[in-house]
Amino acid sequence: YQRRVHGIANGVAESYGFWLGDAFASGGSVGYDHKVMGITARGAWEAVKRHFRELGKDIQTEPFTAVGVGDMSGDVFGNDMLLSKQTKLLAAFDHRHIFLDPNPDPAVSWAERDRMFKLPRSSWEDYDTSKISAGGGVFARPMY
Q: Which of 42, 109, 140, 144 fits a disulfide with 104 by CB distance 3.0 to 4.6 angstroms?
């Protein structure tokens, strides 16, 4: 199932001319192992900071919005979602859930992501929905 989701994500990315081609999710057609290649959350975060710095934005001190693929259970995405307390995570999904927060409070949402990260195992279902802004929520995805 996850391979199929990655294939769909890669197809969409490729159709929009995304600079990584079909390597949007899990290395695309050629595949890669991010651990073997040394792509860590910290390394990815430094690349993100540089990108925003080139746009004149300091994401360690200025709020910014983010959307991503993953959860808070220890993958690169989840680890990165704790590296700036200014992150306004609007949406994320994994193979189990879709998370939406149209107008997140950076401090409140960071604290909740940190709480989830510290759980032995977590999913977006563990997010305290009382901390999500109006119109948002956590929605289960059908498992095929």
A: 109
Give, in degrees to the nearest 5, the angle at Cα 46 between 26 and 22. Answer: 25
CB 123 within 8 A of CB 73: yes
DSSP letter assigned to residue 101: -
User: Does residue 45 contact residue 66 with C-beta atoms inside 8 Å?
Assistant: no
Q: Which DSSP string do the residues of 30-68 spell out, in sequence order? A: T---TTTTT--HHHHHHHHHHHHHHTT--TTTS-EEEEE
> In this structure, are strands 64-69 and 97-100 parallel, antiparallel, or unpaired?
unpaired
Whether the Cβ atoms of residue 107 and residue 75 lie closer than 8 Å to each other: no
Kindly give the confidence (pLDDT) of every residue in the chain, 144 residues in length, as a single tens digit, with 9 standing for 90 and above.
445 555 666 677 678 776 666 555 555 555 555 556 556 677 778 888 999 999 999 999 999 999 988 899 877 888 889 999 999 999 999 889 999 999 999 999 999 999 999 998 899 999 999 999 999 999 999 876
Give the span between the Cα atoms of 121 and 44, in whole angstroms: 23
pTM, rounded to two decimals: 0.74
Check if the beta carbon of residue 24 is closer than 8 Å to that of residue 30: no
